[in-house]
Design goal:
Chain B: Keywords: Nucleus, Repeat, WD repeat. The structure holds two protein chains of two kinds. Chain A is an alpha+beta fold. Chain A has seven helices and 31 strands. Chain A has two domains: 34-55 and 373-399; 59-357, YVTN repeat-like/Quinoprotein amine dehydrogenase (Methylamine Dehydrogenase, Chain H). The longest helix of chain A is centred in the last third of the chain and has 26 residues, at 405-430. Classes of the chains: A alpha+beta, B alpha+beta.
Chain lengths: 452, 538
């Protein structure tokens, strides 16, 4: 007879000294975990509810301006500094961590329309409706050290007067050129008082300009003639011009895929394009109910933030048709400018109510240092939520967002309008000869023409 | 997919030992894959297909990792008993076993003789460390089985019909003469559950925190022990029974009735999920395999039957013999107790063909009331009229425990932690269903609705046209007249039309009946509506 029975001595299965960690034994056999799928589903549901409970995105407001915030610029070299310019000509540098003004840059009369910082973070370029471009030395020491005296005023490095009012400015990546937009597009140099190059294509005002983060010589602009134009500084003229049915207020390049950019349009949508193939948008991002005023990509390139005239800030996936997140408060008015922070974890919005607001990019994210166990738990919650996201109960909880009443109503109205339009189109198609009417997809419908 | 690639490595290159190991792993991987992967070929959506392919690959990898962990990292191996020569395993006595095994294991062979207070029933915590025993004459006790300590013992001085642990060893419920009570470990009475009535059997569903009971009048109660809410209270309508067992796989409660039927219940419906006639006599015992697919039933007509719960049309196996009590061990051994005799059955080839494995006879005159395998140990506990006994059954228990599922060496701190976690993972009662794998899946798209009237008419017309078109056979003289032929044709048309008309009629009748029923319900005065016969909805 051969026999063996299970016999466990306590010493082998418990810790030796009371200071040791408890011993853990694993057996992954599905038979000893009954109803594991139901348990997992309940966990997913709980994770979805927890996410909702902890969704507190608003961190704080930065007040100090006395007029609407018109533009912002982030400093590529300093995580916690952000510049903002307002309609009364005030420019401020903020410390995000303490949410206080570090210093002011006085000089502009009339609205500041464009702000840009050089890649090394030492020079700030500002321009405005007073037809002057100003270069400023950024006080780096006051950002890194703890400042004691607030409201330090700074003299400009240079002041270049030009003929027309400016609407936007952007600094080249890895270079000392910057581009201003206004009556035309002008390329400037740090140490010359007149533009190096000027581009004019048509007579309309150019309202925004952005350099490509990958190729320093390429830039994109939008203008009031409803066009998006691509320029290459190595060539004598413009590369491509795309004319849409409504004008684009702002434009932003995807920093991880620098061939793609997204334009914030007046018709409440954002359009993502591939710069090589402009006759069709890659994706239409719908959800806003009023003109989109500004757009900025996250440094990860996976999502972008938009601010809109409907008083909300939304975050979209780079390939998602609808927004992942909507931020609003009672006191926030029309949003004129938004920025993603350089570590992709915060969003800053500047609005008509003279405040800058700081939001978390992920509404329910836990800030601060996470212990490995906490980290693991968050990851597990994310994974189960992702696994059961298609089930109705989980989906309902995860998708639900409270909307202010005007926006809710406006969205419903827009929905009925588009639905009616679609139905009409469908009927028209049904009652016409087969093949005589074609429905264009929304990705193409809003494009009038592309000029090479 | 990663798994599949492994399996096609040519056998000629791989040395035989490696081949053997990979074959063994293959079997284990299958267990951890929990069923077939999805068929991605039929998908049209490329994006979804890509995502699912990645996911499937991940599942394959994790199953493989788990299989490897099982192969190499498990601290203990399972028990076994092998006969040598002409010896048979079922002739081996407990005394012979005691001489062969280690001292620690012999400590779990014992008889506790308490002749005045029996017959005894008992229950183990999920980790098998603690045992609650209840003698019919009112003796209740909790024991720590690791060091054989009596934690608490007290006398309630009334009949105790059943004892059951709640989620951990701190609380247990006892079905007493008039009501079930909940006690804590110190023997303090915490609750008297009057709503349950005179309960015969108790069961605890540990994933749902539900206490299920069947009382003298055949009423099934479900009570949530966390909030104290009564989840369900159903009349079984099949008489008094003391055969009740929870299927651990899905949480469904099975009751065995005196008419030979087994009914299965969930807390959210008043009608049984399933009723089946298993035996020609009353049912005396019932047990479920831990994987939830096999049910064993014993009838008073001297038969024990094994059923596959996924395919209920006929029994898997029919074993001759009585059983007062049945129990499956974690490794799938089946114990049956009758009179003063216990037999263990086993399916050696895992073909679900049970044959005798071991047997044990108690002293003459002992009446066995309950057999229960101790989880994670090779031990069978027998409650009988003279106390309780414990014997060794090699190969019955799961050798490796999981600290996060059930830990026999749990400290009080771990227990507290575990309690919180299990409360967070508490399942709602709706998750109890016959097929729990349905949870977490999306309903398939609805089938087409009933055909509309026009469609049905068109169908009928088509059938009539088809009949009209058929050529008639040439009949013999007299029956081939044009008038006869016309009659014949008419008959054929009527015959073709009949099934359609009949169906239409029955549907109309059904609709009318439903309407009448609704109006009847409305007609009853408010005070009498509660006596109206409730319709059983499954």
């Amino acid at each position: 007879m051969k026999v063996k029975v299970i016999s466990r001595s306590t010493e082998d299965f418990t810790r030796e000294r009371s200071g040791d960690l408890q011993r853990v034994f694993r057996n992954y056999d599905p038979n000893i975990r009954t109803q594991e799928k139901a348990v997992e589903y309940v966990r997913a549901l709980n994770a979805a509810k927890l996410e909702k409970i902890f969704a507190r995105p608003f961190i704080g407001a930065m007040d100090g301006h006395v007029d609407a915030v018109s533009c912002m610029a982030k400093n590529p070299n300093h995580l916690k500094g952000i510049f903002s310019g307002s309609m009364d000509g005030d420019i401020r540098l903020w410390d995000i961590a303490s949410r206080k003004t570090v210093c002011q840059f006085p000089g502009h009369r009339g609205a500041v329309r464009g702000l840009a910082a050089s890649t090394d973070g030492r020079i700030l370029v500002s321009c405005g409706t007073d037809c002057i471009v100003r270069l400023w030395n950024v006080p780096v020491s006051s950002l890194t050290e703890s400042y004691d005296s607030s409201d330090k005023s700074i003299e400009p490095l240079g002041e270049y007067v030009w003929k027309n009012a400016f609407w936007a400015v952007d600094h080249q990546w890895d270079g000392d050129r910057f581009a201003t937009a206004g009556a035309g597009v002008h390329i400037w140099n740090h140490n010359k008082s007149a533009p190096e190059r000027s581009f004019e294509w048509g007579t309309d005002t150019v309202i925004s300009v952005r350099f490509n983060p990958g190729e320093p010589n390429v830039l994109a602009t939008t203008a009031t003639d409803r066009s998006i134009t691509l320029y290459d500084l190595r060539m004598s003229s413009e590369v491509t011009k795309l004319i849409m049915r409504t004008r684009n207020n702002s434009i932003s390049w995807n920093p991880m895929e620098p061939i793609n950019f997204t334009a914030a349009n007046e018709d409440c949508n954002c359009y993502s394009y591939d710069a090589r193939k402009m006759d069709e948008a890659k994706c239409v991002h719908k959800d806003h109910v009023s003109a989109v005023m500004d757009i900025d990509y996250s440094p990860t390139g996976r999502e972008f933030v938009t601010g809109s005239y409907d008083r909300t800030v939304r975050i979209f996936q780079y390939n998602g048709g609808h927004s992942r997140e909507i931020y609003h408060t009672k006191r926030m008015q029309r949003v004129f400018c938004v920025k993603f922070s350089c570590d992709a974890s915060y969003v800053i919005s500047g609005s008509d109510d003279t405040n800058l607001r700081l939001w978390k990019a992920k509404a329910s994210e836990q800030l601060g240092v996470l212990l490995p166990r906490e980290q693991k738990r968050h990851e597990y919650h994310e994974a189960v939520k992702n696994r059961y996201k298609h089930l109705p109960e989980v989906k309902r909880i995860v998708r639900h967002r409270h909307l202010p009443k005007p926006i809710f109503k406006a969205a419903a109205l827009r929905r009925t309008m588009t639905e009616a339009q679609r139905r009409k189109e469908e009927r028209r198609k049904k009652h016409s000869a087969p093949g005589s009417t074609t429905t264009e997809p929304l990705r193409k419908r809003r494009i009038l023409k592309v000029v090479e | 997919m990663g798994v599949k690639r492994e399996s096609v490595t040519p056998a000629s290159i791989v040395p035989p030992v490696d081949q053997e190991i990979s074959d063994e792993l293959e079997v284990k991987v299958k267990k951890y894959l929990r069923g077939e992967g999805t068929n991605l070929e039929v998908l049209q959506d490329k994006k979804l297909k890509g995502q699912l392919a990645i996911r499937e690959e991940l599942y394959g990898k994790s199953a493989k990792a788990a299989a490897k962990a099982e192969k190499w990292l498990m601290p203990s191996e399972g028990g076994y008993l092998e006969a040598e020569g002409i010896e048979k395993t079922w002739t081996i006595k407990q005394e012979a076993l005691a001489r062969e095994v280690d001292v620690l294991s012999t400590r779990s062979q014992y008889d506790i003789v308490l002749p005045d207070l029996g017959p005894y029933r008992m229950d183990f915590t999920p980790s098998g460390r603690y045992m609650a025993v209840g003698g019919q004459k009112g003796h209740l006790a909790i024991m720590d089985m690791r060091n054989m300590n009596l934690i608490k013992e007290f006398q309630v001085r009334e009949t105790v019909r059943d004892v059951v642990f709640l989620h951990n060893e701190l609380f247990f419920a006892a079905a007493q003469k008039k009501y079930p009570y909940i006690y804590n470990r110190d023997g303090t009475e915490l609750h008297c559950l009057k709503e349950h009535g005179a309960v015969l059997r108790l069961q605890f569903l540990k994933n749902h925190f539900l206490l299920a009971s069947i009382n003298k009048f055949g009423q099934l109660h479900y009570q949530d022990v966390t909030m104290g809410e009564m989840i369900g209270n159903y009349r079984t309508g099949m008489g008094r029974t003391n055969v009740m067992q929870v299927n651990p796989f899905n949480g469904v409660v099975a009751l065995g009735h005196s008419g030979g039927t087994v009914s299965m219940w969930k807390p959210t419906s008043a009608a049984p999920l399933l009723k089946m006639l298993c035996h020609r006599g009353p049912i005396s015992a019932l047990a479920f395999h831990p994987n939830g697919h096999i049910m064993a039933t014993a009838g008073k007509e001297k038969k024990i039957k094994l059923w596959d719960l996924r395919k209920l049309d006929s029994e898997l196996q029919d074993i001759h013999g009585h059983a007062n009590t049945l129990d499956f061990s974690q490794k799938g051994l089946l114990a049956r107790g009758t009179g003063s005799f216990v037999q263990i059955l086993s399916d050696f080839s895992s073909t679900q063909n049970y044959s005798r494995y071991m047997s044990h006879s108690m002293a003459k005159g002992y009446q066995i009331g309950k057999v229960l395998f101790r989880p994670y140990e090779d031990v069978l506990c027998i409650g009988h009229s003279m106390g309780w006994s414990s014997i060794l059954i090699p190969g019955s228990g799961e050798p490796n425990f999981d600290s996060w599922v059930a830990n026999p060496f749990e400290t009080s701190k771990q227990r507290r932690e575990k309690e919180v976690h299990s409360l967070l993972d508490k399942l709602p009662p709706e998750t109890i269903m016959l097929n729990p794998t349905k949870i977490g899946t999306v309903k398939p798209a609805r089938k087409k609705e009933k055909p509309s009237k026009e469609e049905r008419d068109a169908e009928m017309e088509a059938a009539i046209e088809a009949v009209k078109g058929t050529a008639l056979k040439k009949k013999t003289k007299g029956r081939n007249q044009p008038s006869k032929r016309a009659v014949k044709r008419k008959e054929m048309v009527a015959k073709a039309r009949r099934p359609f008309l009949e169906q239409q009629k029955s549907e109309e009748e059904q609709l009318a009946r439903k309407k009448q029923k609704i109006s009847e319900e409305v007609q009853l005065p408010k005070s009498l509506q509660r006596f109206a016969r409730k319709k059983a909805s499954a």
